[in-house]
Design a protein that fits this description.
By secondary structure, the protein is mainly alpha-helical. It is built from 6 helices and 4 strands. A two-stranded parallel sheet has the order 1-4. β2 and β3 (27-29) form a beta hairpin. It is globular and about 50 Å long. It catalyses: 5-amino-6-(5-phospho-D-ribosylamino)uracil + H2O = 5,6-diaminouracil + D-ribose 5-phosphate; 2,5-diamino-6-hydroxy-4-(5-phosphoribosylamino)-pyrimidine + H2O = 2,5,6-triamino-4-hydroxypyrimidine + D-ribose 5-phosphate.
Amino acid sequence: MEKFTFFYRSQSPFSQWYPSVFIVDGLEFNCAEQYMMFKKAELFGDEEAGSKIVQAPTPREQKARGRSVRGFDQSLWEANCRQFVYDGNYAKFTQNPNLLKHLLKTKGTTLVEASPTDTIWGVGLAENDARIRNRKSWRGTNWLGEILTKLREDVLQKEE
């Protein structure tokens, strides 16, 4: 029987919005959402949006500025966004040992974003919904949970 670690909201260290400073290519980010939105702007060549995203202090503002990226193409985004989320979270967890401990404690489980409203990054179900305990009942893809699960396994493999 598959075991799950459910998470939701910015209080969870697994959230894209969880406050965590990390540096990638000389740029400092304050959460994984900021990194993801910056990479979105970079992918579509919108330097102005990228600059505004880096300057935005909160994930809510970063996401809003990411939505205004010029030249957005859904298929190009979908071909790249999961790698961006993996890379940002790799930096977040490997540069913050206390967060890495939280991630490694989930060993043996699949991480699941228990968002009742997000059917792309989450499963479209709340943690208290009985359907969440059966992968076949999920209404969403759980991209974030799958990425974090893979990241944890990759880190564990490197440690061996």
